[in-house]
Amino acid sequence: MHLDIYRLDKDNSVELYPHSHITGQVFVIERGLVRTTALGADDPDGETVMSPGNWCLMPGQIGWMPPRVVHSAVVHGPVRGFGLHLPPELCGPLPRTARIVAQTALTAALLDRMSGWVPGPVIDPARQRLLQVLLDELPNAPALPNGLPLPQDPRLLRFAQALLETPDDKTPLADWAARLAMTERTLARRFTAETGQTCGQWRQQARLFRALELLADGEPVLTVALSVGYDSLSAFGAAFRRQFGQSPARFRTSGGLGPTA
């Protein structure tokens, strides 16, 4: 087995432009926040199926990116973490779509042990067994609601991108439907069919994802709440706790350290 290990240590925010790997990628962070956007599959054989979407990776979680998925990322520093590049022959049992999953006590211990390995072939039988345990555990790890799928219909994508760019926008759905030359009911139905979420659920998720990024960059909590469209700190705090299991202030002051579920 060949396993490439790399460190992800950044003192400042960094944007990684669209790229893909022939390997699968497992990555974890100990501090900070990484937002990844999958743009589709660069796979001439059609073996990888990947719809566009966004994911936010926080400490205590595991990110998975299948081989040949074109993706970009924004690293909100300071960030500390590491990743594993898995050769394609080891990726068969793993999910074919990108996702964020919860760390268990076992996977956390395995990843902590592997973070100290020197990159290169895994020859030692004991290490091969540990790697196999990780590969056995990852497919069964519970997926977390940290994903924000993007619709593929051009009109719906225009709507979604506008919400991502201006999370404080409060334009009623009926007005958006008129702009997109469809009825409000059609917009709502098609959006849910393509993303698996209602327009209201998706909009709130988009706001909270943007809030994570602003907090990781050190913005004051009140500024963040207003920037993403909340009228009060209490409403923002309640929504943030429901989604991420901690208060906005705690996430900001700890740099994302601590439990997230």
UniProtKB/TrEMBL annotation:
<dbReference type="InterPro" id="IPR018062">
    <property type="entry name" value="HTH_AraC-typ_CS"/>
</dbReference>
<keyword id="KW-0238">DNA-binding</keyword>
<feature type="domain" description="HTH araC/xylS-type">
    <location>
        <begin position="154"/>
        <end position="254"/>
    </location>
</feature>
<dbReference type="Pfam" id="PF12833">
    <property type="entry name" value="HTH_18"/>
</dbReference>
<protein>
    <submittedName>
        <fullName>AraC-like DNA-binding protein</fullName>
    </submittedName>
</protein>
<keyword id="KW-0678">Repressor</keyword>
<dbReference type="GO" id="GO:0043565">
    <property type="term" value="F:sequence-specific DNA binding"/>
</dbReference>
<dbReference type="InterPro" id="IPR018060">
    <property type="entry name" value="HTH_AraC"/>
</dbReference>
<dbReference type="GO" id="GO:0003700">
    <property type="term" value="F:DNA-binding transcription factor activity"/>
</dbReference>
<keyword id="KW-0804">Transcription</keyword>
<dbReference type="InterPro" id="IPR009057">
    <property type="entry name" value="Homeodomain-like_sf"/>
</dbReference>
<dbReference type="InterPro" id="IPR011051">
    <property type="entry name" value="RmlC_Cupin_sf"/>
</dbReference>
<dbReference type="InterPro" id="IPR020449">
    <property type="entry name" value="Tscrpt_reg_AraC-type_HTH"/>
</dbReference>
<keyword id="KW-0805">Transcription regulation</keyword>
